[in-house]
Specification:
With 107 residues, the chain is α+β, with helices and mostly antiparallel strands. It is built from three helices and two strands; from the N terminus they run H-E-E-H-H. 68% of the residues lie in helices and 15% in strands. Strand 1 and strand 2 form a beta hairpin. It starts with a helix and ends in a 6-residue tail after the last helix.
């Protein structure tokens, strides 16, 4: 039995990781600027954008961390499905059940 969900979880984890890193860089570049708007009676409204390094790094680190957490969840789910697949394969190959193989009496 080859699980299609195991491959789906593994591929989805890689896609989430790649797109998450690219998206993190984009978010940090776009929203890491602080815009200062000033109003003058003679010159009107003027705006100036400056890069805030602390804000940019905090956006980048927090979004990469959340991407990493989601990647770990999906990759772990794929590993769990692979482990369950191996267990079911071993049970199908053996003629006795798991309870009969153990030395403990069944409940």
């Amino acid at each position: 039995m080859n699980s299609k969900y195991k491959r789906l979880c593994e591929r989805l984890a890689v896609v989430v990781l790649v797109l998450g890193i690219i998206g993190s860089i984009f978010l940090a570049a776009k929203y890491g600027e602080v815009k200062e708007v000033s109003y003058s009676r003679y010159y009107g409204v003027s705006g100036e954008a400056k890069r805030d390094v602390a804000l940019t790094l905090s956006i980048l680190v927090s979004s990469i961390f959340s991407t990493g957490v989601l990647y770990a969840i999906l990759a772990g789910l794929g590993e769990a499905l692979e482990y369950l697949e191996r267990l079911s394969k071993k049970e199908e190959e053996s003629s006795t059940s798991i309870f009969e193989q153990s030395k403990l009496p069944p409940l």
